[in-house]
Design a protein that fits this description.
The complex is a heterodimer.
Chain A: H1 5-11, H2 18-35, H3 70-75, E1 80-81, E2 84-85
Antiparallel strand pairs in A: 1-2
Chain B: H1 6-16, H2 19-36, E1 39-41, H3 44-47, E2 48-50, E3 61-65, H4 92-99, E4 103-108, H5 142-149, E5 155-160, H6 166-172, E6 175-178, E7 198-203, H7 206-216, E8 246-250, H8 260-275, E9 279-283, H9 291-306, H10 324-335, H11 338-350, H12 357-380, E10 383-387, H13 403-408, H14 414-419, E11 423-430, E12 436-443, H15 448-462
Parallel strand pairs in B: 3-4, 3-5, 8-9, 8-10
Antiparallel strand pairs in B: 1-4, 2-4, 5-7, 6-7, 6-11, 10-12, 11-12
The chains are: A mainly alpha, B alpha/beta.
Chain lengths: 93, 471
């Protein structure tokens, strides 16, 4: 197990403050050392749990209905422009 | 008036419509909340939403944990990242309460995104235990449990991913029920661990929990994991009769390091059941010691995925607009607290290439072993009895710097979430220093009636619930 906090933080899209990085790294290493115990459990013939109960998806009828959620959803956005979420420019001309 | 149970208040509200009750409870919130911080938002003019239905909860005030969406009201999961977020819809649980006539009565404090066992990780300040304000109320539904225990509200909704309804219920001396996975719709519950999360009631009595479950339970077309299993009338299980009920004591749940006063209370509870005619048997759940490790792999994996949506684009705060990438990184750095970051990083790691099989897949396999333990045990017994938490409520700050110690405090509640079985915590006694002790009852999937039957018989026999904190 090689835990590199900078790499994981990059994957998780979190820019860590230098002051918190050392403590988080130490905590995560100790948690991962604890969960190492699971490797000792013999699971050769055990299936993974995919659903906790024997639930099957119950779908509603596939019917066309009016949807008027766009404006109410956009009201929660930190920035919007017309019918869209507004984000910083990602493509240069 | 604030001391009424839900059932008693029902009678009261029938007389005068409930205005006097709302007024009495609002006054109590104004006087006590500055001390306890159980409510994050309580402004009777804004946050009290009257239901329009004329159902079984007509006029009764029910409080809501801050991770359950209420249309038009700020809902933050006690996190800075969702500050100002007003959901455009109601959670199904809230909709059902409103349709039953309930009054939505304020929003309760919690651990940020339900990540915690102490209600100390809220971005809006620590919540305190009404029995001793130097101690934690438990987490993550600590605000809901503290509000009910201090008689600031009649009942509250919580959510339980690894014990977040039951452990605070135990720490605050109230009743908390985690229903079977799929029994209550998760639509509108801001997701933490989607294969674990359940909404459930936190109440003063077992009867009140049954009244709320009658409203909350049942299929929902908006949640494909909500079961279509028929819903019984839970109040019909409230009988003072446990004759012939087989109750199992799992040997692995009386763990090393368990507080002796907690163990004594639970063993005495078993004696009460025996006296009432139940059969007490020893059972074994041999993979219990792996439960915390499994949980902190699988639940954080789900959490890191669920929290991917919080990036400053669609809701909540936005930190910087230098570039889209900076916007993501800086919003998440500023918006998430330390425990949320810890779990997102851990979840990202266990799902990352090269580690997925060793951690996540292996975790899901051991989860199967834990489920199998329960299936075997429930061939011999109808209900399993244990402590809810290995210790009484601990001091504020005591476990905050050691996350592993904090995680291990959930060792007795996590297995029920891994297996999806229903579990209830109810008060069973007090320590010599006057702190509440909770016991946990677990049953087969969808057999909440067995929990109500056992819990009601115990509660009515012992009347432990009548003792109140001095505030």
């Amino acid at each position: 197990m090689s835990f590199q906090i900078d790499k994981v933080a990059e994957l998780a899209r979190i820019k860590l403050k230098p002051a918190e990085k050392a403590k988080l790294e130490e905590d995560l290493k100790s948690i991962l050392a604890y969960v190492e115990q699971l490797r000792q459990v013999d699971t050769k013939n055990v299936a993974e749990t995919s659903h906790v109960l024997d639930l099957t998806n119950v779908f509603r009828k596939d019917e066309v209905k009016p949807s008027e959620v766009r404006d109410s959803v956009l009201e929660s956005a930190p920035a919007r422009q017309g019918k869209f979420f507004k984000v910083p420019k990602v493509v240069e001309r | 008036m604030h001391q009424l149970t839900l059932k008693q208040a029902l009678e009261e509200v029938r007389k005068d419509g409930g205005s006097a009750l709302i007024k009495a409870l609002s006054a109590r919130v104004s006087s006590l909340n500055p001390k306890l911080n159980a409510f994050l938002r309580f402004d009777p003019a804004v946050s009290v939403v009257r239901g329009e239905g004329k159902g079984p909860l007509q006029g009764l005030p029910i409080s809501i944990k801050d991770n359950i969406c209420i249309q038009g009201l700020e809902t933050t999961c006690a996190s800075k990242i969702l500050k100002g977020h007003r959901p455009p819809y109601n959670a199904t649980a809230v909709e059902r309460l409103k349709n039953a006539g309930a009054v939505i009565f304020g929003q309760c404090n919690m651990d940020e995104f339900a990540f915690g066992s102490s209600c100390e990780t809220s971005a809006y300040g620590v919540c305190r235990n009404p029995w001793d304000t130097e101690r934690v109320p438990g987490g993550s539904s600590g605000g809901s449990a503290a509000a009910v225990a201090s008689d600031m509200t009649l009942a509250a909704l919580g959510s339980d991913t690894g014990g977040s309804i039951r452990q605070p219920a135990a720490f605050c001396g109230v009743v908390g029920l985690k229903p079977t996975y799929g029994r209550v719709s998760r639509y509108g519950l801001i997701a933490f661990g989607s294969s674990f999360d359940q909404i459930g009631p936190i109440t003063k009595t077992v009867e009140d929990a049954a009244l709320l479950m009658n409203v909350l339970a049942g299929h929902d077309e908006k949640d494909s994991t909500a079961s279509s299993e028929p819903v019984p009338d839970y109040t019909k299980s409230l009988v003072r009769d446990v004759k012939g009920l087989r109750i199992g004591l799992p040997q692995e749940y009386f763990v090393e390091g368990m507080d002796p006063e907690v163990e004594k209370s639970v063993r005495q509870a078993a004696e009460v059941f025996k006296k009432l005619g139940a059969e007490i048997k020893s059972v074994s759940l041999p993979n219990t010691s792996q439960a915390v490790a499994v949980y902190y792999i699988v639940a954080v994996a789900e959490a890191s995925s669920n929290l991917g949506r919080f990036d400053g684009v669609r809701f909540g705060i936005r930190a910087s607009e230098q570039s889209l990438k900076d916007l993501y990184f800086e919003t998440r750095d500023e918006g998430f607290g330390a425990e949320a970051k810890r779990r997102i990083l851990l979840g990202t790691f266990v799902l990352s290439a090269g580690y997925y099989d060793a951690y996540y897949r292996q975790g899901q396999k051991v989860r199967t072993l834990i489920r199998d333990d329960f299936s075997r045990a429930f061939k011999d017994v109808d209900v399993i009895l244990s402590a809810t938490a290995p210790t009484p409520p601990f001091k504020i700050g005591e476990k905050l710097s050691d996350p592993l110690a904090m995680y291990l405090s959930d060792i007795l509640t996590i297995p029920a979430n891994l297996a999806g079985v229903p579990a209830m915590s109810l008060p069973c006694g007090f320590t010599s220093s006057g702190l509440p002790v909770g016991m946990q009852l677990m049953a087969r999937p969808f057999d909440e009636p067995a929990l109500f039957r056992a819990a009601y018989a115990f509660e009515q026999e012992t009347q432990v619930y009548k003792k109140k904190p001095k505030l």
